[in-house]
Amino acid sequence: MVLDLADAEDLAHDFFSHALEREWLGRYDAAKGRFRTFLRSILQAYASTAHESANRLKRGGHLTAVSIDSTQLSTDAGVDRLFEQEWVRSVMTIALERLRLQCEQAGRDATYAVFLAHDVDGADAEPPLRYAEIAARFDVPVTQVANYLHWARTRFRGHIIDTLRALTATEAEFREEARALLGRDVT
């Protein structure tokens, strides 16, 4: 099932409304697995039911036969990969917003702008952005770009860790998620 952004946002909103109303999240048992695996399974079940309801036709009206060979069925591996990508994106988005707020409160708007230009917007630039280009864009010395990036990267990593701690139920789950996301153990 592929949804456009507005439909996906509606589905997510409906899911969380139902989950909170019916206290689905209270059923989570850390001994049985990771929280995000639990969340993914109930989200998948909810989305499947919502999809079936939305596409249900009354008394077979206007059905068209389609060969199963011509349809594109999603695989569990594809769904898992997409869920993993969205998990990472959401953790990074939360951490980036926390960094933005920290920079704003500390009067470090230039630091955030340099970090955003170099490490976020310029992350995939070919060729990679040089510190001198960033320095010229923000009218700061090249050495200051390095200082800004060091400060912001350190805080950003801390926000990622704090976000993971908030989203995981156990220390073991936190360590596993941190290792998967950051590529190493976190202290």
Strand portion, in percent? under 5%
Helical amount among residues, as a percent range?
A: 55-70%
Q: Segments where pLDDT lies below 50 for 5+ residues?
A: none
- Silhouette: globular
Count of DSSP-assigned helices: 7
First and last CA, distance: 39 Å
Biggest sheet overview: none
Order of helical and strand elements = HHHHHHH
Count structural domains. 2
Write the layout of secondary structure elements.
Layout lengths: L4 H17 L13 H21 L20 H30 L3 H13 L9 H8 L3 H26 L3 H12 L5
Helix pairs in contact: 3-4, 3-6, 4-5, 4-6, 5-6, 6-7
Task: Describe the structure in your own words.
With 187 residues, this protein is mainly alpha-helical. It has 2 domains: 1-63, no CATH class; 75-187, no CATH class. Helices cover 68% and strands 0% of the residues. The chain is built from 7 helices and no strands. The protein has helices spanning 5-21, 35-55, 76-105, 109-121, 131-138, 142-167, 171-182. α3 crosses α6, α5 packs across α6 and α6 packs antiparallel against α7 (171-182). The longest helix has 30 residues, at 76-105. It starts with a helix and ends in a 5-residue tail after the last helix.
